[in-house]
Amino acid sequence: MATIFTAWQGVQERIAKAAAASQRQSSSISLLAVSKTFPGDAIRSLYSCGQRAFGENYVQELIDKHAALSDCNEIIWHFIGPLQSNKTRSVAELADWVHSVDRFKIAERLSAQRPEHLPDLNVCIQVNVSGEASKSGITPDECMALATKICQLPRIKLRGLMCIPEPTQDLTQLAKQFTLLRNLQNQLITAGMNTDTLSMGMSGDLETAISEGSTLVRVGTALFGARSYPDNSSLL
Known about the structure:
236 residues, globular, Ala_racemase_N, pyridoxal phosphate, Pyridoxal phosphate homeostasis protein
């Protein structure tokens, strides 16, 4: 408990320091604990520290952890991974947020499958700000059209945009990609869409993301430790 609490405090301090450097209130930036691949006990420990928002990338993990942690009834579940159309039902029924909407078909299915007794499902459009073929997300030019269509759907609410930038140590290039997402959100707001969320920034680049306007940072390794992946570039 002490170790994960120390890590959680450290991330909160990084957020506060980055916010202060950008003359922002740290309360305007939410921390999403990316718990993918980590066991329920790790989530429970962080929940005991006061963390409430947790992010999962895989549908089966969301199903399993939602059930195992049902007694932690203040958890806010965010689905942040690629979502196939044949797996939307469980996400529509269990998640509070979906960050990775990149096709209208996905939004339609989430809307149709969201139970009526639940609050509207919060969604973000994932934008491919780096142009990498390996990245999910729509192109920047497609953002306005998709956002306009999503806003017409019932039982889901468009909250904003999400991106995963290219892994680079070039802070100028990184900032440009975050700025692109912020500018796209400003276009949505100008068009009358009341979006309030920029989901950008991870363990290694949250300071740059906050300086460019992030309202939600997705942090995993800085909280839970390193994951075992064949390719560590996929770490959040």
